[in-house]
Amino acid sequence: MKFRARIVDSACIQQFAKVVATIAKLAKVVAIRFTLDGVYFIVNDDVEFNMVGVSEEFNEIYLEVAISNLASVLKSTDQAKAVKMKLTKKQTPCLTFEIELAPLTANARTVMHDVPVKVIPRRMWANYTEPAAGNYSIEVALPSLKVLRHMVDKMKNLSTCAVMSVSRDGEMTLSAEGDLVIVTTHFRSLPVSSIGEGGDVPAQSCTMCQ
C-alpha cells in the first residue's frame, strides 16, 4: 500500500488547510479515504452505521487520523511553495508532510511532519461509504461562504433556529425570528440546477436549520 501527493498551487494549499481546520471543529478523529480522483474526510460518530460494502476492485486507502494533529501541521503552510503528503511506515503508519517554504536566502527550506494514522482494514470500509444525498428538487450554488457565515453568526444571537428558503429563480432567503424582530437576508441570482421535470419541481423549497 503506497500513497504520495504533492500540491504546488498556493491557493490549493490554503484551501486544503482551511478544509481540515473546519473539519477539526466537527470531530476529534476522522477517516480519510484516498482514491485515484479524490480525497474524502469522513466523520462517522455512529458505531452501528453500516452500508453496502465497497467493491474489491477499487484502488483506495482508508486511514483514521486525529484531525487536530492534521490541522496543526497545516497551520505552517501559510508561506508554503509546495506540500508533499505521503503514507510512510515508521514506528507506526504515518502521513508524512514535506512542506517547502519560501526561501529567506539562497537556501531552500523544508519542514517535515509525521502525523500518526491507523490503517482501516478493507472489511470495515462499508462503515465509511458516502451517504446518499436523498431526494431533492432544487440544487443551488451557495453564495460566498464568508458572507453566509457572517450572517449566520449574527442570526444565532436572535434564535437557535433559522429558516432557509430557495426558489427556482435562484433566490435564497435566510431568516431568524427573535422576541421583538424578524431578520431576513436575501441572496439573488444564484446558479440553479433543477432536479425533476415540470410539476415535480416546486417553485420554492424551504427548510429549518438549527
TrEMBL record:
Listed GO MF terms: kinase activity
Main location: nucleus
Domain of life from the UniProt record: Eukaryota
Gene3D superfamilies: 3.70.10.10
Keyword Kinase applies: yes
Keywords, in A-Z order: Kinase, Nucleus, Transferase
Cellular component GO terms held in the UniProt record: checkpoint clamp complex; nucleolus; site of double-strand break
InterPro entries given in the database record: DNA_clamp_sf (IPR046938), HUS1 (IPR016580), HUS1/Mec3 (IPR007150)
Compartment(s) where it occurs, according to its Swiss-Prot or TrEMBL record: Nucleus
GO term, biological process aspect, one: nucleotide-excision repair
Protein family per UniProt: Belongs to the HUS1 family.
Name of the molecule in the record: UMP-CMP kinase
Taxonomic lineage of the native organism: Eukaryota, Metazoa, Ecdysozoa, Arthropoda, Chelicerata
